[in-house]
Write a structure and sequence with these properties.
By secondary structure, the chain is an alpha/beta fold. A 5-stranded mixed beta sheet has the order 3-2-1-4-5. Helix 1 runs parallel beside helix 2. It is globular. The two termini are 33 Å apart.
Length: 172
Amino acid sequence: MARILGIDPGSRVTGFGVIETGGRKPVYIASGCVRSNDPDLAQRLRIIFEGLRAVIAEHRPDEAVIENVFVKHNVESALKLGQARGAAITALAIHGLAVHSYTPAQIKLAVAGKGNAAKVQIQHMVRALLSLSAAPQADAADALACALCHCHTGTTLARIARAGALTRERRL
């Protein structure tokens, strides 16, 4: 069993989601958001860092997944998002966690079957895949989607590695 912490970074709201893998299907452990409305960016980054350290201490993940920064129009927003992502990665690194990262399109494709899925579709699929009674808040759902993406991708990569090993053995 592996415990995966997914993170959807944001400078005001950073979503987190924890799942456990290893059985037939991933199991929901926890999710939520680290929130800060402080006008000072440095204080918001501190809150993200400390909030995620508390999540890590409580849930003891084995590895972590964080969404890559995506720049569409506003460069200033992308820079703030990158700094929030850096604060989150630092919290993960201090705890010695392996950190994986995927683009928003990769996460959406792995969870909803299309790379341009809307937030409501991600919430619906996260709810269905984890058998939740209600859809999580959008940022928490995105974080859980990160963890699910890594779970699905990791399983596929492990199968490919096993198939490659079998092929090499047959050649010998």
